[in-house]
């Protein structure tokens, strides 16, 4: 990528996708978003904690899983990204795949933010384990634990890296970015009172 001391998380990239100004407020102005006060964030953390403590040896054999690791820290030094994967599945065809649990209902499509999270996880699993990653999975806990498969293409990963670079650019340069073009997001934004 380039020389930089900035190391971002996958969550930072997701927040950039929500609105680039999120990154500016958090990193350039040091104004916390207080996500610990948001119901879905708290509930999502509960879901992850329950998953961490229960049924630890369960393998998803329908997915061809032969082993797994849970709550795995992964990083890409070259791309300045880090994150934690709920589960890294090692599959019978010799590939691996990230699996994420979401406190969400499946509504006939996988949101782009989820896809980019999985693209970056796939990149880092591939780099950290030196294994091919060509698919990923999401488990929707509010839809009876429905699991959806996502195909991972190299161009998807490249696009996710580009977004990570844009996220780092805001932090490094401190330039006030354009807000999201989707104004409906502003209604639920914790920075709506200071965003002009």
Strand content: 15-25%
Question: Looking at CATH, which topology would you report?
Answer: Lambda Exonuclease, Chain A
Structural class: alpha/beta
**SSE order:** EHHHEEEHEEH
- The coarse silhouette is globular
- How many strands appear in the DSSP assignment? 6
Q: How many structural domains does the protein architecture include?
A: 1
The top-level CATH class is Alpha Beta
- CA gyration radius, whole angstroms: 17 Å
Q: Helix count?
A: 5
Sheet with the most strands, sense and barrel status? 6 strands, mixed
CATH architecture: Alpha-Beta Complex
What does this structure look like?
With 196 residues, the chain is an alpha/beta fold. The chain has one domain: Lambda Exonuclease, Chain A, CATH 3.90.320. Helix content is 36%, strand content 22%. It is built from 5 helices and 6 strands; from the N terminus they run E-H-H-H-E-E-E-H-E-E-H. Strands 1, 2, 3, 4, 5 and 6 form a 6-stranded mixed beta sheet that branches. A hairpin with a 4-residue loop joins strand 3 and strand 4. Helix 1 crosses helix 2. The protein is globular and about 50 Å long. The relative contact order is 0.20. The mean pLDDT is 90.
Provide a quick synopsis of the model.
This protein has 196 residues and is of the alpha/beta class. The protein has helices at residues 10-18, 20-28, 39-53, 112-129, 154-173, and strands at 8-9, 65-76, 81-91, 96-102, 135-140, 146-151.
